[in-house]
Write a structure and sequence with these properties.
By secondary structure, the chain is an alpha/beta fold. It contains eight helices and eleven strands. The strands form two sheets. The protein has a six-stranded antiparallel beta sheet with strand order 4-3-6-1-2-5. Strands 9-8-7-10-11 form a five-stranded parallel beta sheet, sandwiched between helices. The longest helix is centred in the last third of the chain and has 13 residues, at 222-234. The chain starts with a strand and ends in a 5-residue tail after the last strand. The protein binds adenosine-2'-5'-diphosphate (A2P). The site of adenosine-2'-5'-diphosphate has 14 residues, from β8, α6 and α8.
Length: 257
């Protein structure tokens, strides 16, 4: 069995000078659970260079989709941002990761909290009909510096809600909460501040975040994860993992370079 599949880039969309998304073919043998990541990359001077990327595509979709940062001198992303349809993409055959339902105790509201490219695993999760079978509400909160950086998330949420099949599951359950920190917008401030003030839940008409009913998945920068973990643990939430299901789970938004 191949450990790395060679796929073909199909589409590329640049959202801002820092963010882009792209799709690629998917080997039918490549299996994953919504929320997982794998290693992807390209050959540079004939040598493969791979980094961890969460799948944005649903596990049932025929193609693969990824959301990436662009760093001018980043070892991988300085090259990856130049991808064009038809180019080769290397995809590791083994998906893994902690942002999966198996690691969470049953609950009523699922909070998916992502900043920047930390949105990626949640794109896959909101496209999975099973997510809506398990929860009364699924909150997707995405924190970015600027409004333009919300573009990809906004598009995916609209597609999910308008989808003939998925929309039936998601409508009335999927609550989208975009927020920006460096310009004026309808929601502003960091996710930490929005939970500390209770504004996020109040704006959505939900009860204050609590461990008895709510489950949380976190994906973002190390600082964002540390601050939100401290807030959750202060409210009695316990971190889940593959051996013990808990109230919340964490994954770093991988590629910073
Ligand atoms: P801020 O603009 O105040 O730094 P980045 O692109 O740097 O990963 O940031 C994405 C978003 O995450 C920004 O809105 C940023 O806010 C926010 N952010 C950065 N650090 C934290 C943190 N410790 N907790 C919550 N949000 C954070």
């Amino acid at each position: 069995m191949a450990t790395i599949y060679t796929e073909t880039v199909q589409t590329v969309r640049h959202w801002t000078d820092r963010l882009f998304s792209f799709t690629a073919t998917r080997n039918p043998g490549f299996r994953f659970i919504s929320g997982q990541f794998t290693m992807i990359g390209i050959k540079i001077n004939g040598k493969p260079l791979l980094r961890a990327y969460s799948m944005c595509s649903a596990h049932h979709e025929e193609h693969l989709e990824f959301f990436s940062i662009k760093v001018p001198d980043g070892p991988l992303t300085q090259h990856l941002q130049k991808l064009q349809p038809g180019d080769e993409l290397l995809v590791g055959a083994k998906a893994t990761g902690t942002l999966i339902q198996h690691n969470l105790l049953p609950g009523k509201t699922l909070y998916l909290l992502g900043t920047g490219t930390g949105l990626a695993p949640f794109v896959s999760i909101i496209k999975d009909p099973d997510t809506y079978e398990l929860y009364d509400h699924v909150v997707l909160a995405h924190g970015c510096r600027e409004i333009a950086e919300l573009g990809y998330g906004e598009q995916v949420v609209s597609q999910v809600l308008e989808d003939e099949f998925l929309g039936e599951f998601a409508r009335g359950k999927l609550l989208y909460y975009p927020t920006v920190t460096r310009e004026a917008f309808r929601n502003t401030g960091r996710l930490t501040a929005l939970f500390n003030s209770g504004k996020l839940e109040a704006d959505l008409g939900l009860a204050t975040l609590n461990k008895d009913t709510d489950r949380v998945m976190l994906c973002g920068s190390p600082h964002m994860l540390a601050d939100l973990q401290t807030m959750l643990e202060g409210r009695g939430f316990i971190e889940g993992n593959h051996t013990h299901a808990g109230h919340f789970v964490i994954e770093k938004a991988f590629v910073e370079k």
